[in-house]
Specification:
Blueprint (H helix, E strand, L loop, with lengths): L1 H21 L9 H14 L3 E4 L2 E5 L4 E11 L6 E11 L2 E2 L5 E15 L3 E5 L2 E8 L12 H12 L3 E7 L2 E7 L2 E6 L2 E8 L2 E8 L1 E7 L2 E7 L1 E8 H8 L14 E16 L2 E15 L7 H9 L5 H18 E14 L5 E13 L2 E14 L2 E14 L3 H12 L15 E11 L2 E17 L2 E15 L6 H9 L4 E13 L4 E11 L3 E10 L3 H5 L12 E11 L2 H13 L3 H20 L2 H16 L3 E6 L5 E2 H10 L4 H5 L1 E6 L10
Antiparallel strand pairs: 1-3, 2-3, 3-4, 4-6, 5-6, 6-7, 6-8, 7-10, 8-9, 9-12, 10-11, 11-14, 12-13, 13-16, 14-15, 15-17, 16-17, 17-18, 18-19, 19-20, 20-21, 21-22, 22-23, 23-24, 24-25, 25-26, 26-27, 27-28, 28-29, 29-30, 29-31, 30-32
């Protein structure tokens, strides 16, 4: 925490100083030499900076003023800053009515900025065409509010007009805790800056070398781009004086249409990671309920602040920072990883859509192909979405309560999820598919606290190879029945209605290919909102739950014939003989097991028909009056044979119709 905080302070101090330099007043004097000389003199006269140059000349023929060896350095900032230009040339200078200036072009050479021992930035020749710079007259740097002052200078600078700006090269060296990082951004180009809007920014190729315990980490990118930047939107959020009555409006503003890194790669000793592209689409900002500028003002104005004090102030400010930012889509495309022990790793897409402090629309992947040690995993798509986050105020309150030693309720802090989905997922070992699913989806909705009151589950063509069954006897039995793998469909729906306090199970289905299926439905009542709002106390709500009725439908899919054939073979009988013996013995078997004559009379003939001609068996529970769920549970534990009478279960069997005889 200390390291990150220190680094953040140094970075912000550096940027603050840069903005202060940009904010020095431009003198509205003639000719251009006088204006430039006055500009440098005004910087030198400020309490924070010293400025000087070697010479200033003007060429009438080209209308170009040339300033040589301009140097600007900080005097009072805790981080020493020095900015130097070998040469600055201003061509076609003119003044604007507000005290700013225009120029046909501005060029510089041998530029350099040094931020203490932390960073050293070198820039190649810079060319800016068709430039209009607003007046900074009246701007005053307030050392007690350095961050706010930086933003106000930035707001003035944002109104600069530039047709195009090009930096031939940009290289930086940063040092932190005796570790040095070298980076080159290649060339930098900006086009179409006007009234706080920038059409396009592009840099590259980018390279960076960063030390690590295992050796140098090399980072490369062909191109870094940004499209349609709205600087005014950012200023609206950062400048506390733009909050009407000190209160943020919470309105989203589009700050950046697209940021894109093309062909980005990381190389470490023994491995490489490459991204086809990384993109951030529609970065947006909004004013939080209260401005966070005062926090950054304090951090910059009082660098000696203790980590404890800084942490306490951050607890108020950081939630507002998180509130302020969001995006429509963050994604990376075509990720490939090379590493020891990995045969291949490819991920076509990873994305986080519709992100803000309110929630996340979706986190997902697509086109996954991973292989290692004769095992491969593939997925067309896997995603989760519809996340809703607790309010930042609730999180802060919980943190403060914990710091004060007060126990708080964690339930309001649990995020909720809308859905999860997987499409065409498979696991292959030694060339054989051992697990797969065509599509699986879970939908959750109508939350009461952290509890969803609408649940929908749908799994299609779930495949599990019999080799994954842990129990050896079960695995052997599946093989003997002729099943090399299990292929199943599964799903159900749950819905709670507050109007009648009912919980309905519908569309339950469990269908195993060439085995059989079960479909079911049931209704419970007595589930109150109060019970759902306190999930810890759901068990205490059991006595109030009543079973209204339900139905289960069992359908054969060849398991009866397979089981009879297997057992007949063991006994040395024909399947027909064993089937008839099993059906004939059913009444006596049920009498010995159930000891419930009334239910036996219903069940025996149904089972006999089901065995002789496998088809469909339907069990329906229609109690005359609703049955307490606790009573059902007690009966199941003490005397399961009493359940048919308790629930008024009826049994019916439907045999498949015989095929029609062929017509003569």
């Amino acid at each position: 925490m200390a390291r990150r905080s220190t680094q953040t302070r140094l970075l912000v101090l550096g940027f603050s100083a840069a903005f202060v330099v940009a904010a020095a007043p431009a003198m509205a004097e003639e000719p251009v030499e006088t204006a430039i000389r006055g500009w440098v003199t005004s910087i030198d006269a400020s309490p924070n900076w010293v400025a000087g140059y070697e010479s200033l000349t003007y060429d009438d023929a080209s209308r170009t003023a040339t300033l040589k060896n301009l140097t600007i350095r900080s005097e009072t900032l805790s981080t020493k800053i020095e900015i130097a230009f070998g040469q600055v040339a201003v061509t076609g200078y003119g003044q604007t009515p507000d005290g700013g200036f225009t120029a046909v072009s501005v060029t510089t050479s041998d530029s350099r900025a040094v931020f203490g021992a932390f960073a050293d930035v070198k820039l190649g020749p810079i060319t800016a065409d068709t430039v209009t710079v607003p007046s900074f007259t009246g701007f005053v740097f307030d050392p007690a509010r350095p961050f706010t002052a930086m933003i106000k200078a930035y707001a003035i600078a944002a109104q600069t007009t530039i047709a195009s700006l090009k930096i031939d090269s940009l290289d930086s060296t940063t040092t932190f805790e005796n570790q040095t990082t070298n980076a080159s951004y290649g060339s930098f180009t900006l086009t179409g800056m006007q009234k706080g809007m920038i059409d396009h920014v592009v840099a590259g190729p980018f390279t960076q070398e960063t030390p690590s315990p295992d050796g140098l980490v090399n980072m490369r990118a062909d191109k870094l781009e940004a499209f349609k930047m709205d600087l005014n939107a950012i200023i609206d959020v950062f400048d506390p004086d733009r909050y009407q009555g000190g209160v943020g409006d919470g309105r989203w503003r589009n700050a950046l249409a697209l940021e894109k890194y093309t062909n980005l790669s990381f190389e470490i000793p023994g491995g490489k990671t490459r991204f086809g592209s990384i993109e951030l689409e529609n970065l947006k900002v909004r004013q939080p309920p209260a401005s966070f500028a005062a926090f950054f003002d304090d951090m910059l104005a009082h660098p000696e602040m203790s980590e404890k004090e800084l942490g306490q102030k951050a607890l108020d400010a950081i939630p507002n920072v998180f509130y302020a930012f969001g995006w429509d889509a963050f994604r990376f495309v075509d990720l490939d990883v090379t590493a020891p022990g990995v045969d291949r790793f490819h991920l076509g897409d990873f994305h986080i859509n519709d992100y803000s402090s309110d929630g996340i629309g979706e986190i997902g992947i697509a086109d996954l192909d991973v292989a290692s040690d004769k095992t491969s995993v593939g997925a067309e798509r896997a995603a989760m979405g519809g996340f809703k986050f607790p309010s930042l105020q609730a999180i802060v309150a919980a943190v403060r309560a914990e710091e004060a030693g007060v126990e708080s309720d964690p339930l309001p802090l649990i995020p909720t999820m809308g859905y999860a989905e997987a499409v065409n997922v498979s696991v292959v070992q030694d060339g054989k598919t051992v697990g797969a699913i065509d599509r699986g989806r879970v939908d959750l909705g109508n939350y009461i606290g952290p509890v969803p009151t609408q649940v929908s589950v749908d799994f299609r063509n779930l495949v599990v190879d019999q080799s994954l069954i842990d129990d050896a006897r079960a695995r052997a039995m599946f093989a003997e029945l002729g099943y090399q793998q299990v292929q199943a469909n599964y799903g159900f729906k749950l819905n709670w209605r507050e109007a009648d306090q009912s919980l309905t199970l519908s569309d339950f289905r469990f269908d195993i290919k060439d085995f059989g299926s079960i479909a079911a439905e049931a209704v419970l009542t007595g589930l109150t909102r109060q019970a759902l709002e306190n999930p810890k106390g759901l068990e205490a709500a059991l006595p109030s739950l009543l079973f209204q009725g339900g139905k289960a439908v069992v359908k054969d899919g060849s398991i009866i014939d397979r089981a009879i054939a297997m057992e007949a073979k063991k006994k040395g009988q024909t399947p027909e003989k064993y089937r008839e013996d099993l059906a004939g013995a059913m009444p006596l078997t049920l009498m010995l097991v159930l000891k419930n004559p009334g239910f036996q009379e219903k069940l025996a003939p149904a089972l006999q028909a089901f065995i002789r001609t496998p088809g469909t068996m339907t069990l329906t529970a229609t109690p005359a009056t609703p049955v307490p769920l606790t009573r059902i549970i007690a009966a199941a534990e003490a005397d399961p044979r009493s359940l048919p009478d308790l629930l008024s279960i009826d049994v019916k069997t439907t045999t498949p119709a015989a095929p029609a005889a062929p017509q003569p």
